[in-house]
Amino acid sequence: QVQLVESGGGLVQAGGSLRLSCAASGRTFSGYTMGWFRQAPGSERQFVAANRWSFGSTYYSDSVKGRFTISRDNAKTTVYLQMNSLKPEDTAVYYCAAGRGRPPTASNEYDYWGQGTQVTVSS
Asked: Distance (Å, rounded) from C-alpha 113 to C-alpha 3?
């Protein structure tokens, strides 16, 4: 079992930055693919970014590529999402997830989810 707790969300103006954190506890952290997803009201959950430690690979959706950066600290069992140049369309609840992630973009490949943190970007 893995427990995930997100933090770092909030209200920011367009063009600003936020860093989300996801603290994991429970089973071995380094073996999991860690992903970030987001869900806006009335929309489906959407892949944002993922990190596969065992492959040394990161993945991003086209909508955030070049603006967001996913990173992880296995010693601290924490994964981060640095979000720069934020846009109003980035407004959503952001979720951290852990799982096999094969492929890393598919939400059904993740077994564990955090409770979510709200990110609101004003224009």
From this structure: 8
Query: How confident is the model over 62-70, as a mean pLDDT?
Result: 98
In this predicted structure, the answer to whether residue 55 has a pLDDT above a threshold of 80 is: no
Note whether 70 and 52 are within 8 A (CB).
Answer: no
Query: pLDDT value at position 53?
Result: 77
Cis status, amide bond into 103, omega within 30 of 0:
yes
Q: Is the pLDDT of residue 74 over 90?
A: no
Concatenating the DSSP letter of every residue in the chain gives -EEEEEE--EEEETT--EEEEEEEEES-STTSEEEEEEE-TTS--EEEEEEEGGGTEEEE-TTTTTTEEEEEETTTTEEEEEE-S--GGG-EEEEEEEE--SSTT-GGGEEEE---EEEEEE-
